[in-house]
Amino acid sequence: MEQHILYMVQGRFSGIKERIEGLLPTMEEKIDGRISSMEDKMKERMSAMEKKIKDMMSRCFPLVLTSTIKVPSTFGMFDINHISVVSPDKLWVSKWRKLQQVDGTGHVIRSLDDKYEYESKGGGHTVSVEGDLVFIARVRNSEQSTASYGLWSHKGIRKMTADGSITTLLAPDLPDLSPTCIHSSHINGDLLIGMYSYPGTGQVMRCDGTGRKIGDIELDEEGERLYKGPHYITENRINGDIVVSDRWKEALVVVDRSGRHRFDYTGHSTDTLFDPRGVCTDLLGRILVRHCDIDDDGNDVCFISLLDQDGRFLTRLLTEQDNESLSSLYVDDNYNIYVANTNIIKVFR
Length: 349
What we know:
Layout: H1 2-58, E1 65-70, E2 82-87, E3 90-95, E4 98-102, E5 108-111, E6 116-118, E7 125-127, E8 133-139, H2 143-149, E9 156-160, E10 166-170, E11 178-184, E12 191-197, E13 201-207, E14 213-217, E15 230-235, E16 242-246, E17 251-255, E18 261-265, E19 275-281, E20 287-294, E21 300-307, E22 313-321, E23 326-331, E24 337-341, E25 344-348
Antiparallel strand pairs: 1-25, 2-3, 3-4, 4-5, 6-8, 7-8, 8-9, 9-10, 11-12, 12-13, 13-14, 15-16, 16-17, 17-18, 19-20, 20-21, 21-22, 23-24, 24-25
């Protein structure tokens, strides 16, 4: 009886084994097919990525002017000091105490309400991933509070949505510490805010997208102050570095996403001086900075320099005499470079 049962079990196992062996070639074909399909897709993606990178690399130099956007003369006598791009036909442009949205021809789409006074000589506005404008401004006080607090409140961080409604994200009651520049992270939506305190000390405050404070960045590992006067600020979307253009320090100050100091860039060895203004990064993590110097004849000259993400100089992208003063710049995902140039915006590729 036991021997009979043993034969039956062995027979069943033998049948299962034959079925498995019969299925193996089919399973192997299916697995091989899926792997081959995945490899093809990966190769296609890698090829597309490499093509895009090579295309972007080939556009490093020289830049080609593709269009110009003239800001209306009613905008005021001061030079454009910052631009934030929503799309090629929607740009926020600022001069001293003026902030307007223009289209690709320079036509004014929207102006900041008189209730708010835009307050920044540097990078005082930014566009979030959602397309909302986040900006630094004072609010006109009510008649009842004017006697006690003056006509305008302290500087605060405001947000304007697509329908034009404005809310206050952050209104720090810090008379000795004032926001000077701001950037909305395209990695996690955080707000990076450059702050200045007289005489000549600065810091960076990180808040979430609602204005809740996360922390401050002030000191390096040796306890030395990182900043003197943040003027423009941006974030490297590749590694999360925070890049600050600090005119008072005459340097780009770069820290990692946790606030640890990585490096200061103080210009190329051939630069007589380094006066940084607008700064941004591209899709490859490279840093573009606008700065001024003096040429051999003693004339002011402005540059846009390209650095790698570790602060190594790569090339000059643009050189202009100071009568065509360069201030702010922005690079979109298609590698269009928007350069604020006195009273016009030049678009290069």
